[in-house]
Amino acid sequence: MGMLVDTHCHLDAEHFPEGPAPVLERARAAGVAHMVVVGVGSNTETARFATTLSAEHDDVSATVGMHPHEASCFDEAMASDLAALSHHSGVVAIGEAGLDYHYLRSPAEQQQQVFRRMIALARQRRLPLVVHTRAAPEETLAILEEEDARDVGGIIHCFSEDRAFAKRALDLDFDISFSGIVTFGRAEAVKEVAVWLPADRFMVETDSPYLAPAPLRGKRNEPAYVVHTARVLAELRHQSFDELVAQSGRTAVRRLGLDCSRVT
Asked: Which of 33, 126, 150, 190 has its CA 20 to 30 A from that of 257?
């Protein structure tokens, strides 16, 4: 069996006020070998939390970035702090960053500007980019193309688009990460992509505390639940759970430069 990786989870106190320790223990007990903790927020405290957690645990890595919801909070001081934090040894990617036109919690123009800044930081640091996109497929792909994001590639996290989007993302050297959405009954387009993707271009994630997979919908999501998403993907792709875990784990190791000592 390979290494089961939750490639995207939020574990800060806003979501887990009891602290990360019991969450990490439950994940390990469920067979999760590595977790990538995302450091985004209206300030850089969550990014600092993610990097600190990665320093304390060998099975935790971090990302640092600026979510489109908080793009209106971005300023040059934050840019400087994120650039400095990106040098932390536990940081494996920049993000999440991108566009979210579903809620428009920050104006579209500001989202675009910050997205371009995060792509520039990823290229400067030679780190992959974790992309958030919702209700802005064409704009997201256009900015990735315009800013030469293919130089570093990355991950389309919490994939919720269609096969046409996925093909263009792969052409830009972005892999696809599936969340609990792929377990939902009406996510036919996402399921189609899950079946179609090459074996070396997909990963699994929770996006905890959001989007708990079936049969846990409505509960607070956490890394331990990535097992359910992996099982559904294995069924969709007509392969064993162990094979699915091995494939997705190898992709995470390749894309994020994770410790592969436990990958078989």
From this structure: 190
